[in-house]
TrEMBL record, chains A, B:
Gene: proS
Annotated localization: Cytoplasm
Assembly and binders: Homodimer.
Domain comment (free text): Consists of three domains: the N-terminal catalytic domain, the editing domain and the C-terminal anticodon-binding domain.
Record-linked PANTHER family: MITOCHONDRIAL RIBOSOME PROTEIN L39/PROLYL-TRNA LIGASE FAMILY MEMBER, PROLINE--TRNA LIGASE
Source organism (scientific name): Microbacterium alkaliflavum
Function: Catalyzes the attachment of proline to tRNA(Pro) in a two-step reaction: proline is first activated by ATP to form Pro-AMP and then transferred to the acceptor end of tRNA(Pro). As ProRS can inadvertently accommodate and process non-cognate amino acids such as alanine and cysteine, to avoid such errors it has two additional distinct editing activities against alanine. One activity is designated as 'pretransfer' editing and involves the tRNA(Pro)-independent hydrolysis of activated Ala-AMP.
GO MF term list: proline-tRNA ligase activity
Protein name from the UniProt record: Proline--tRNA ligase
Amino acid sequence: MVTRLSHFFLRTLREDPADAEVTSHRLLVRAGYIRRAAPGIFTWLPLGLKVKAKIEAIIRDEMANAGAYEVHFPALLPREPYEQSGRWTSYGDGIFRLHDRKGADYLLAPTHEEMFTLLVKDLYSSYKDLPLSIYQIQDKYRDEARPRAGLLRGREFTMKDAYSFDYTDEGQDASYQAQRDAYERIFQRLGLEYVIVAADNGLMGGARSEEFLHPIAVGEDTFVRSAGGYAANVEAYTTTIPDAIPFDGLGEPVIFDSPNTPTIQTLVDHSNAHLDAPAPGVAGPDTADATEWTAAHTLKNVVLALRHLDGTRELVIIGVPGDREVDDKRVEVAFAPAAVEPATEQDFENNPLLVKGYIGPWSETGAVLGEESATGIRFLLDPRVVDGTAWVTGANIDQKHVHTLVAGRDFTGDGFVEVANVRAGDPAPDGSGPVELARGMEIGHVFQLGRFFAETLGLKVLDENGKLVTVTMGSYGIGVTRILAILAELNNDDKGLVWPESVAPFDVQVVATGRDAVAFDLAESVSAQLEASGLDVLYDDRAKVSPGVKFADAELIGVPRILIVGRGAADGQVELWDRRSGDREVLPVAGAVARLTA
Amino acid sequence: MVTRLSHFFLRTLREDPADAEVTSHRLLVRAGYIRRAAPGIFTWLPLGLKVKAKIEAIIRDEMANAGAYEVHFPALLPREPYEQSGRWTSYGDGIFRLHDRKGADYLLAPTHEEMFTLLVKDLYSSYKDLPLSIYQIQDKYRDEARPRAGLLRGREFTMKDAYSFDYTDEGQDASYQAQRDAYERIFQRLGLEYVIVAADNGLMGGARSEEFLHPIAVGEDTFVRSAGGYAANVEAYTTTIPDAIPFDGLGEPVIFDSPNTPTIQTLVDHSNAHLDAPAPGVAGPDTADATEWTAAHTLKNVVLALRHLDGTRELVIIGVPGDREVDDKRVEVAFAPAAVEPATEQDFENNPLLVKGYIGPWSETGAVLGEESATGIRFLLDPRVVDGTAWVTGANIDQKHVHTLVAGRDFTGDGFVEVANVRAGDPAPDGSGPVELARGMEIGHVFQLGRFFAETLGLKVLDENGKLVTVTMGSYGIGVTRILAILAELNNDDKGLVWPESVAPFDVQVVATGRDAVAFDLAESVSAQLEASGLDVLYDDRAKVSPGVKFADAELIGVPRILIVGRGAADGQVELWDRRSGDREVLPVAGAVARLTA
């Protein structure tokens, strides 16, 4: 049935919405695709719903090709399964919790690993039932602290989440690959550029974890890639560990006065003013050729507090080269599921041995940082702090630092930790050259969960030998509403949206112009003809609306092919308008119909 | 793509689920369509999801035919709109409420009238934009006190809810009729018998309200219908008011001793034992020919408490003929939005003039019931208590009653109220004869909301004269998951489900039997051929599963047409099995394919 704009539920807006931070949000609201209902929560208008349905249809198609079956879980779920997995607590403020009238605890599910696991446990019991891949397309809820950027980070959003179930690691690899391949096809069909990056594999102990990132400036994720083909999320980047340096020939640690140098920069300036230039080999590989003191010669000791799941709070000190920062995302991943907080004044008061601005691992009377030290505080080192590297760092005395403090000789840590920021030029861990940094938006994630949920929730099957084995799982997510927003973010110009044909809300927009009944009659019959040949047609049949307004609306809405029926109608001439290229061509009706239905 | 049972996510169960109260629940769980996730909350398995999608497709199709456009509102909504309409409070315990991390109030929407109203207000402003009909198919939430009967009364369920917007009553009537017609077509396509009954039009002040009930024994709703075509929900039934009776010739009220007669039956027995038989005309029309005292001669005064929205509690007394009960549903509707509670011992202690078991409207010293009486308690009468009817009722003295107490002469009420139960044989209000009672399940509701929400939320448009007029709305709901359950409830036998073709999860189930590769090869090629011709095929390709198990599964699943490929395969013979009739017919492959694709 031809959709007539005179009746269709649509109101385009000339003004940008006041709260729109990004192009997709601005255009989707202005062109009548979505409306805001609450922070991070949107109402879908007919145009938006049609695009969303087309994206979902592509996903369903490729899930079927990958042998996955569709199910649908409730959004409102009881606490128990999430209690068993520990996530009722670990989600913290990030989920919506509620009670029913009897006081029982419920949540609005942010993801459904527990439910998928329990469903399969409920129904399956033998290796013969596996492999199995099942998925849902479902509305999910996360109580984001800062919902923003329209659909890009909402509190109610639509996801496709798939899970695979295998009883061998080889089976799991095959299931993973099938979903990974399906994701590639989905993004190709959506015309959406993607980079597959290695991602952190989190707490679940799974083996592989990759994110599909769309490289885009408004992206929330930073990733690194090398010309040689390496790509990873910054959280997953691993430092190339330099070779250890022999201790031979290194001088002893020297404490020196360093008044008013609580920051790395003041310390470097002071050192260059008051110390001899650094001897070659006196510091780590990044500073080997330095002729003066630099931030890279210094060891920065950052005090953080970890809030563990059981509620306990632990101080931890991170030693990183002074030219690096502790990266928020890397530190979050490194210590998960504990939450990381800055240390407070109270923490320093409780630990008088920590002299703010002058903290270091060593003192003349013994170790100051580390579980076996005077403070007893866990001390973790950046992997670059290899044995034999010499550092300028705090002497644990107000206004004093120490230099030629050698790792592995004068101090050691309780272990290493990957939390320093990654910089352009850092080596790719696979030896494929230096990395560059880019911004991306996560559009998909394929992830070997391994046996965490199956173990926790007791999902086992009998294998060929009648032995109970724990099932291994994969998790595969695509953000449907996020993809829609990214497509809008990418496909637009200063006039409005320009949808790719695969997801456009209509195949053709027919615009009747003028006051001549001939034009409207022709537009009407052409619309019917196009619909009859299987195209989905939006017909702008509005009387008393100027061609200018109609064209502006068509450009804003972004149907890729527009057919104008106006002045030439009496002569059987119409105009075909390619929204993306802007090309307009006058041709006979039959020719236009043939082109559109080709 | 042919769906192969060897890989499909399905496990049929031989045992009924322990909590299944009704056939639909039992079979949908056993045949692998749904699983329980929490009380009244279900997970949809692939088979169930396919049937649900088919029902939704029929609804979408008929909504499009009725000129309605699809939108989609969030399930998670802020409090404000519901606060404005008063429903945040009036829903009581019936909805799920929650806070976000900032402490803001949210709810899981049970219906979306407010949001639809605000959306149209947000976008439309002129009579030229109307009429408009929009709808959604969406998961809704109600915190039912007693979720039961599987999908028939759940806490998370899918509904299609449509709303129409007009600026004239005539327009509203046309929009209403379009939806009503669409509902008839939907139920016809689903093969679902329905009765359209007049329904209570509630608090909104709308003009028309009709329910589509499916007549079914497990139905929660009682409705009445006459042979002459009247049909109504019991809540909407209106009593035919008898003519008033002249007071002339009626005796004076007589107080009489009636020890130990706190109930109607004891009072009737006592009266027959100790009083003269009732004189003709001494009571109302229902008792005109009685030769002895009956319950219909007595006036029962029932004390109830109303809990108003503002939290106040009010006692009210209802006077009904003693042979009728106060009907729970009718009383609920009559006093909505106030909640109705039984009176407590405390209420009687607070009102010592009310002598329990001997309450009446009259005493020798003046009126006892009514706003202007000694108690001041509001007193409402059944419409049958017309002027001139004479009653036996309490004398407000322990162990004493009064007879020949005449309505309109000796007592009056503060008004009339429709709360007495309806009985088979009661007259239809349209004069179409006596009614009979039947049970039904609500499957749809079309409802003229009128201007309540538009007024409350400020939805006005400019009319042809540039004058702001309030929009009038209609509300049209269909329970999608409920319909699925009713279809399962109706379409089954002792072997399992038998789906109508319009909603069956697959068009054909192909079953390969035996161990002969020829049979499996033929089944494979026939399945592919049927799929290629547009049918959705479930192919039972399981090796090492006996024909008996395969047939039992096919019968349980309920695909209406089954094709068995087994022993005759080598000769090109297959067996076509009609699940509903049970007919099985052996015929050549080509003939079977021709029949299935016809």
